[in-house]
Amino acid sequence: MEISQYLSVFMDECQEHLLTLNQSLLELEHNPDSSGILDKIFRAAHTLKGASATMGFNKMADLTHAMEDVLSKLRAKEMSLTADMMNTLFEAVDLLEILTNKIGEGKEEDIEISGVVQELRHFVTADTAVVKVERRQKLQLRYLEAEKEQIAAAMDQGAKLYHVDVTLADDCLLKGARVFMVLREIEKKGTVIRSIPTVKELEDENFELRFIIGCVSAATAGEIHKAVYNISDVANVEVEEVPLDEIQLEKRVQDAADHDKTKISSNPTVRVEIRKLDDLMNLVAELVINRSRLESLGSTLRSKELNEVVEQVGRLTLDLRDSVLKARMVPVETVFSRFPRLVRDLSKELGKQIELEIFGGETELDRTVIDEIGDPLVHIIRNAIDHGIEGIEQRRATGKPEQGKITLNAYQEGNNVIITVTDDGRGFDPKRVREKALRLGLVSPEILSEMPDEQILDFTFLPGFSTADKVTDVSGRGVGMDVVKTKVDSLGGLVHIESELGEGSRIVIRLPLTLAIIQTLMVQLGKEIYAIPSSYIDQITSLNRTDIKRVRKQEVFMLRGEVIPLIRLQDVLEIPDAKNSYFDELDVVVLKVGERLIGCVVDGLLRQQDVVIKSLGGFLGAIKGIAGATILGDGRVALILDIRAVA
Description:
It is elongated, with a radius of gyration of 34 Å. By secondary structure, the chain is an alpha+beta fold. Strand 12 and strand 13 form a beta hairpin. The protein has a six-stranded mixed beta sheet. The chain has a five-stranded mixed beta sheet with strand order 6-8-9-11-10, covered by helices on one side. The protein folds into four domains: about 130 residues, Four Helix Bundle (Hemerythrin (Met), subunit A); about 100 residues, Alpha-Beta Plaits; about 140 residues, Histidine kinase-like ATPase, C-terminal domain (Heat Shock Protein 90); about 130 residues, CATH 2.40.50.180. GO terms for molecular function: ATP binding; phosphorelay sensor kinase activity. Its EC number is 2.7.13.3. It catalyses: ATP + protein L-histidine = ADP + protein N-phospho-L-histidine. It comes from Hydrogenispora ethanolica.
C-alpha cells in the first residue's frame, strides 16, 4: 500500500479522534459513571488503534491498544475510574498528539511511550482480583422496554419476576453443561427473560463462575431455589423477587437508537484540502476584479445589453463568492475545544480552582483566521490563570467564591467576529501600569496624567512590558501580550482590555470574517481613490465648516452630543492636492476603532465596492496607513487604508 497516498486522510482522522478523546475525557472526569462517554472514548481509541496499525505507526498503535484495555475494563465495570487513571489517560492523549504532529512532519518521533503504556497495563492487571469482587457486587439485570411489557403481562397472569443468582463451584469442569441444566430447571417453572452474561456467552462458557438469570414464574422463590440448588456443582443460589416498579431499563440501547437517528439525519460531507479552497478563492477574487471592469465598460459604452449581462454576471459572482466564503468557514469551537484541558491542567498545577465557560462555539470564522488565532488565545488564558485568578485563600479573604471563572465567548457582529476572554480575578492595576510606563520612559508624566485608564492599559501590549513581580513557568517566558497584539493586527483585527481592579478583566478581540475579499467604501482624495474597509465605518455625515471647533490644536465636532476628533486624511497620507480644505461642506466618514469614534474628512464619497486585497509586496514594504491595494474596474490601483494606523 502506498502510505503517502492516505497520509493526509489519516492525519485528518487523527485530529478528529484526538479532539474527541480530549473533550470526552474531560466530560468523563465530571461524569465517571457515564457509559455513553466511555463508549465514545473507547470508539475513538479503537479507531485510532486500527488506523495507526494499518499505516504502520506502531507506537501509536501500542499506546492506543493499552488505552483500549483500560477502557474495556471500565466499560465492563471491572474496575473503577481513579484520579491516577484519569491523569494517565490524559498523558496518553498528550503523547498521541505529539506522535501525530511528528507523523505529519514526515517522521515518527523517537518518543518514549513505554512508561505510560506500562502504567496503563498496571491498571488492568493490578486490580483484577479486587475488580472481580466488585463486579460480583455490581452485576445488575436491566431490561428493554418490550421485555418490561412482557414481564408486566406475565404478572397480570399471576407470575412473579425473579432474579436467580447462581454461583458454580470453583472446581466445576463443565460450566456450559451446568448452565444448560440450570436453564432447563428454570424453564420448567417459567420463562427466562434475560441473563448476565447473555445466554450465548453462558453456552460458550464465556463467564467466570457466577451468572444471574431473570425469569417470570408462578412458582415460589423457595421452589426455584430448591430446583437449582439440587444441580451438581452449584455452590450457591440466591433468588430475589423483583417488583415491577423496581425494574431497571437498559439505557444504552436507547442511546444507540438515538445515535442512529442522528446519523441518518446528518448531511453528507466531503473532505477538501484547504489549499484547494485557497485556489478557488483566488479564482473568485480575479472574477470579482473583472466584474468591476465589466461594470466600468458597461457604464462607458452605455450598452443596455452589456449592462444586463454585467448585472447577471455580478449577481452570479456575488453568489459564488458567498458560497466559497461559506465553504472556508469553520466553527471557532475547533479552537475553543483545546482550552478546557488547558484550564484543567494549569489550575491543578497552580493549586487553583477554575471553571471555564464557553459560549458561541458555533460562531464561524475563515479557516485562515482560525489557524492563527489559537496561540494568542492560549496566551491570554494562561495569563488569566496565572496572573488574573487569585489563589483559593486570597479569593476567600476577598469574599469571592473559591472557584474562579474564565468565560470564553464568541459572536458575530456585522462583518466581524468578536471573541472575549473574561475572568473574575484581580484585574489589571492601572496604577502599576502607569508606574511601569513612567519607569520605562514610554511617555511623559504630563501626557500620562491625561490618559484614561483604558488607554493606559494598552501599554501592556508593548514588547517586554509586564507588571508581573516574577516570571513564571506559565507566562512571561518571552511571549507577551505584544505577541497577541501583533498576531491580531496581522489578521486585520483589534484587541483591547477592559478591567476593573479587584473585579476582573475582559480582553476583547475583533476579527474580520475573512481576509481575502472585503467590502469597502471608495473615497476620493485629490486625484487618488482610496478604499476604507466598511467594517470600521460607524456612519457617514456632512459637516459645515462652521461646525468644526478646535480643542488644544485638534479639530473636533459634535456628534450625538459627543465630542469627536476630526482628522484630515491628506495630512496623514501626505496628499498635496486634496481639495477639502477649500470646501464649505465636508464629507466625513466616522470610523469606529475599538470603542473610539473618529471623523475622517475626504474630498468625496464614490461608492461601496467589494475589493480583493492585494499585498504591496516586499519591494514597497510596509507603508504606514496602507493595508494593501486593489485593482479597480478601469485597471487603476486603489490603496486600502489601514484604519488602525490612520486613527
